[in-house]
């Protein structure tokens, strides 16, 4: 049985106090909310904090506010289970509710938070193992080593972003609020991510992601499709998020974002551009799905064969668009 190493647990009552405590303890401290990713990483020796600064007791971080006219603000400590069942999120952003409901298992969704899922550590078959397993094959560059076991010639880590909510939030045009010693800043959520498996977030270690802000839905339609081995519990090895707005039957704005194909969510801009100014006919959907699949260049570092995952990218992009268009969805894997 893997056990947690010893650590000091601090429970601040405000964002300012949490920022101060992190600054006092520096690199020895980590923020934690639900802990479903942090505690597992600590057991495997991937995270080694001496101090955990808890966020879930801070007032205002566990609520959803706003309405369809003004947009919504989601506190980072809102659990995935609550987001999955939130009536306004289900009504206006069903893809986000679906993504939250597909993350982890029912038990983990009761503690796992939207902020934690947005900041989820990148994953790899050579990294997400016990300390002794990693030591036996020689550590990888993401933790304790100096070489990528997937791509030995690579100068950077190629661990994969497997967050369910991140590609959906990118497709919805969400923004995130970050608070640190220098104050608060607000950025588009796609700017939160880097294409680097080790340094995958632009958020500084001493910053707290406090809120995720969604714009007014304004007629938006969205869908999310996820590939994983087990339907009840598994990380995403491919996620396809689609969001669009139309005037009548003509698409005026579209975003397609893929997860699980790289170290950050990847926007299939060329595929989305094929939709703008057109109706969602089967021919247009096929062309956009084919273009989206060209962006998917997965490596053999997560579950399932990478060639298969690339093929499914086209299938799932097509299904997501068919769902939005109200067309029959083709059957298959």
How would the blueprint of this fold be written?
Layout: E1 8-10, H1 15-25, E2 29-32, H2 38-43, E3 51-54, E4 64-67, E5 71-75, H3 80-85, H4 87-92, H5 94-102, H6 106-111, H7 114-118, H8 131-137, H9 165-171, E6 175-180, E7 183-188, E8 208-214, E9 221-227, E10 238-247, E11 250-259, E12 266-267, H10 269-273, H11 282-295, H12 306-325
Parallel strand pairs: 1-3, 2-3
Antiparallel strand pairs: 4-5, 5-8, 6-7, 6-8, 9-10, 10-11, 11-12
Describe the protein's architecture and organization.
With 333 residues, this protein is an alpha+beta fold. Among the domains are: 1-59, Uridine Diphospho-n-acetylenolpyruvylglucosamine Reductase, domain 2; 221-325, CO dehydrogenase flavoprotein, C-terminal domain (Enolase-like, domain 1, 2-Layer Sandwich). Helix content is 31%, strand content 20%. The protein is built from 12 helices and 12 strands. The protein has helices at 15-25, 38-43, 80-85, 87-92, 94-102, 106-111, 114-118, 131-137, 165-171, 269-273, 282-295, 306-325; strands at residues 8-10, 29-32, 51-54, 64-67, 71-75, 175-180, 183-188, 208-214, 221-227, 238-247, 250-259, 266-267. The strands form 3 sheets. The chain has a 5-stranded antiparallel sheet. The protein has a 4-stranded antiparallel sheet with strand order 9-10-11-12. Helix 11 packs antiparallel against helix 12 (306-325). It is globular, with a radius of gyration of 20 Å.
């Amino acid at each position: 049985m893997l056990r947690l190493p010893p650590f000091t647990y601090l429970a601040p009552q405000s964002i300012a106090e949490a920022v101060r405590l992190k600054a006092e303890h520096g690199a020895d401290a980590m923020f934690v909310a639900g802990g479903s990713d942090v505690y597992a990483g600590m057991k495997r020796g991937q995270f080694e904090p001496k101090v955990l600064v808890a966020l879930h007791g801070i007032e205002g971080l566990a609520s959803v506010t706003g309405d369809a006219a003004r947009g919504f603000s989601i506190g980072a400590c809102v659990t995935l289970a609550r987001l999955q069942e939130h009536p306004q999120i289900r009504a206006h952003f069903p893809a986000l509710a679906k993504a939250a409901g597909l993350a982890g298992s029912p038990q983990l969704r009761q503690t796992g938070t939207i902020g934690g899922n947005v900041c989820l550590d990148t994953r790899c078959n050579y990294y997400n193992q016990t300390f002794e397993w990693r030591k036996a094959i020689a550590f990888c560059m993401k933790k304790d080593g100096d070489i990528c076991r997937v791509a030995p010639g690579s100068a950077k880590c190629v661990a994969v972003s497997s967050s369910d909510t991140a590609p959906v939030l990118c497709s919805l045009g969400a923004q995130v609020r970050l608070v640190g010693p220098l104050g608060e800043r607000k950025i588009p959520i796609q700017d939160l991510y880097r294409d680097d498996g080790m340094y995958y977030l632009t958020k500084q270690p001493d910053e707290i992601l406090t809120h995720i802000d969604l714009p007014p839905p304004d007629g938006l339609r969205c869908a999310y499709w996820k590939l994983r081995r087990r339907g009840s519990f598994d990380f995403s090895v491919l996620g396809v998020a689609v969001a669009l707005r139309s005037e009548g039957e003509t698409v005026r704005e579209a975003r397609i974002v893929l997860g699980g194909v790289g170290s950050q969510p990847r926007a299939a801009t060329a595929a989305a551009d094929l939709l703008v100014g057109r109706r969602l006919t089967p021919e247009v959907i096929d062309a956009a799905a084919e273009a989206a699949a060209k962006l998917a260049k997965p490596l053999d570092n997560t579950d399932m064969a990478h060639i298969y995952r690339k093929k499914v990218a086209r299938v799932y992009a097509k299904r997501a668009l068919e769902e939005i268009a109200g067309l029959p969805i083709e059957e298959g894997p």
